[in-house]
Amino acid sequence: MRQLRYVTADVFTSVPFTGNQLAVVFGAEGLPTETLQAITREFNYAESTFVFAPERPDTTRRVRIFTPELELPFAGHPTLGTAHVLVATGEVAPTADDLARGAISVVLGENVGPVPVRVQLDGGVPTHGQFTTAKLPEERVEVTDLDALARVLSLSADDFVGGAHAPTGVDCGVPWLMLPVKSAEAVARARLDHVAWAEVLRDRWAAWPFVFAMTRGDDEAALAPHVRGCDIRARAFVPGSTVPEDPATGSANACLAGYLAARTPRDGTVRWEVAQGVEMGRPSRLSIEADVQQGAVRAVRVGGASIVMCEGTLRL
């Protein structure tokens, strides 16, 4: 019997039983992709990762990321959570210099390429992490029919912001459709219509809807304390998957940072705090930022807290 070690974490949160769940599996060397996919279905989280020895000298570990349906080239909460788990479990130990700086750099070799993660330390214990995307944002406008997009979300065309903030596909490793609406209330009201999605978006480059609103001081009394005071409320829908809505989506929020930065008329670093997963009962907080130089986005980063939840053995 072969045994694999696993660790689970809640990602983009500092509060247990919130954020986005992740399983990190060690010791899967030599197993076929089909077995890795089956293990991922067993956990049935939005994603699971498998950690291997590095294949390149400029990476700390090789990481493969799976949803219950398929392997991904990149995903945000698995990247952040895996780096956190590596440091929290001692798989990657900070040096004396790291401890003095209060941070350690971990570079994960993913299918999209090397993804650097900076993990902050408090007395040697990891707290908050931030990754930089391997890919700068790429935009495409595929669907301009607001009535059709509104049907996908069970909203009205009047709910969309429009203008320079029109619905746009963005890719920072995984394409997402940015759908800005006018209020957090519209975000909460959204309900994915699977039939309309299949008709309007299923075969598009950016098929997964990411709906968001600038909060502008909306009433936050009903929100969990750790997601109060955010600039943005968001939801990510993943139709056709085992987990049809995601409580915290690093790849989509990376796209959001690129989308907003491209529409921010000033150079420098621009930042926002995003609350996601509120409607699912797993509130998550993501810190997003982008560097803008001469009107072009030069770097995108996404950060947040993580906490280890479980450790165990998987028997094959």
How does the overall form come out from the CA principal axes? globular
- Please report which band the strand proportion falls in: under 5%, 5-15%, 15-25%, 25-35%, 35-45% or over 45%: 35-45%
CATH architecture of the largest domain: Roll
Strand order of the largest sheet: 1-2-3-4-6-7-8-17
What count of helical segments does DSSP give?
7
Q: How many distinct beta strands?
A: 17
Structure, explained:
- It is a single chain.
- The protein is built from 7 helices and 17 strands.
- It has helices spanning 33-43, 76-88, 96-101, 146-153, 184-189, 194-200, 250-262, and strands spanning 3-11, 20-26, 47-52, 61-66, 71-72, 103-110, 113-122, 125-132, 138-140, 168-171, 175-180, 209-214, 232-237, 245-246, 268-276, 284-293, 296-315.
- Strands 1-2-3-4-6-7-8-17 form an 8-stranded mixed beta barrel.
- The model has no long low-confidence stretch (mean pLDDT 95).
